Amino acid sequence: MKRRGVFRFRGPRKRAAAAVRPFLAFALAMIALSALFAAAIPAADSPPAAREQKNPFEGKADAIEQGGKLFDEKCSECHGDGTGMTAPDLTDEQWIYGGSDAAVFETIQDGRKGGMPSWRSELNRDAIWKVIAFIRSLHKK
Questions:
Q1: How far apart are CA 104 and CA 75, in angstroms?
Q2: Is 101:132 a contact under the CB 8 Å cutoff?
Q3: How large is the average pLDDT for residues 21-36?
Q4: Which of 5, 39, 115, 140 lies at a 20 to 30 A Cα distance from 98?
Q5: pTM for this predicted structure
Q6: CA distance 141 to 138
Q7: pLDDT more than 90, % of the chain
């Protein structure tokens, strides 16, 4: 004798709805997470903090000299005397990632795909600004 409550018959609509519920829950969770991450990530055109800053060591002879020593230690292997070797020329008007002080700061600090390493762990903010002051002193007019 069969028990009546053990085997419940579900019609095709109820089975389909039951199969779709986990998918809908997952999809809603992904949409919510996407919205959360989109709100947390700044837009591509919104500048990082350094992009609005000017070099605090601009034109200061002692900072330029210190920046030159750092450049010789860290940068000259690829950039040579600043006119480029295996890396781009830093004395002209052509800058791949932008030539503003802030853009150069970002490039030195975080590096760039394709060859420019990040110097974040080896150079503090002041050291990076001093290197930029030195690079500006090399600029061709």
A1: 13
A2: yes
A3: 74
A4: 39
A5: 0.63
A6: 10
A7: 48
Cα–Cα dist 92/103, whole Å? 15
Helices 125-138, 101-110: inter-axial angle, 10-degree rounding: 120
Domain spans of the chain? 7-41, 49-138
Q: Note the pLDDT of residue 25.
A: 78
Scan for tokens 């919205």, then name that residue. Answer: 35
With left for phi above 0 and alpha for psi between -120 and 50, is residue 92 left, alpha or beta?
Answer: beta
Angle at alpha carbon of residue 40, lines to 34 and 41, rounded to 5°: 90
Domain 49-138 class, CATH top level:
mainly alpha
How far is residue 50's CA from residue 122's CA, in Å, rounded to a whole number?
18
Residue 95 structure tokens: 């800058």
- Please check whether residue 131 is in contact with residue 74, taking contact to mean a CB–CB distance below 8 angstroms: yes
pLDDT digits 0-9 by tens, 76-96: 999 999 998 899 999 998 888
Q: Can you give the length of the chain in residues?
A: 141
Residue at token pair 């009546």: 4
Closest alpha carbon to 101 in 45, 59, 40: 59
